[in-house]
Amino acid sequence: xxxxxxxxxxxxxxxxxxxxxxxxxxxxxxxxxxxxxxxxxxxxxxxxxxxxxxxxxxxxxxxxxxxxxxxxxxxxxxxxxxxxxxxxxxxxxxxxxxxxxxxxxxxxxxxxxxxxxxxxxxxxxxxxxxxxxxxxxxx
Amino acid sequence: xxxxxxxxxxxxxxxxxxxxxxxxxxxxxxxxxxxxxxxxxxxxxxxxxxxxxxxxxxxxxxxxxxxxxxxxxxxxxxxxxxxxxxxxxxxxxxxxxxxxxxxxxxxxxxxxxxxxxxxxxxxxxxxxxxxxxxxxxxx
Lengths: 139, 139
Description:
The structure is a homodimer.
Chain A: E1 2-6, H1 11-23, E2 28-36, H2 46-53, H3 67-76, E3 80-87, H4 89-99, E4 102-108, H5 122-130, E5 134-138
Parallel strand pairs in A: 1-2, 1-4, 2-3, 4-5
Helix pairs in contact in A: 1-3, 4-5
């Protein structure tokens, strides 16, 4: 039983990791980082994709984590791994949950580009609507 | 720290109680039953409202629970209470969470009248969008 936490280094993403750690202390945590590519960008040439992928070295390490999140995970002494993927965030999150042994998605209400504190972010909204599993939107 | 579970006796509502019990075993559970009234119905006369309220006797008891949910809560030996309210379900759930010391809402993706197994129910969708707290949609 693995819990998926979409992770982009933002403060809501950190809060989601914290919530997952608090409520699911016996599970494996999978932190998924999606490098966003606009639709059609894949057709624009592999160079761009390769450029994007440069930032994704050592996906199994904790390199992509903020110090705060890293400290939190170390304190929790929890089994976790990082995964990375490229594409549309909501679609990648749902598809990762479908293809892997994910029982629950725990996510922040907004990612790095979220601007509204009132309205739900479009990524969270789409994931809640389409995910095959239980979804927790952390506020 | 109280967890709110909207409860209408449906199977998704039972699953939500089960999820809440499994992930929040130290919290108080508040089971909220909303008797739905269409907008404007309150203007139609208090008789109708009183008729609706007849079913809400002993809100503090476990009378409104299915046997299955009652057994689950007894096994969990968990502190819980039932609350009842009348009105638009999504609005009542959000407003109850705002007015009480609710830290998280755990709800089924569909209620008693949910027809689709694919799309998210409109009550769940509205609650996720408007709730001031973390919301878990159980599938």
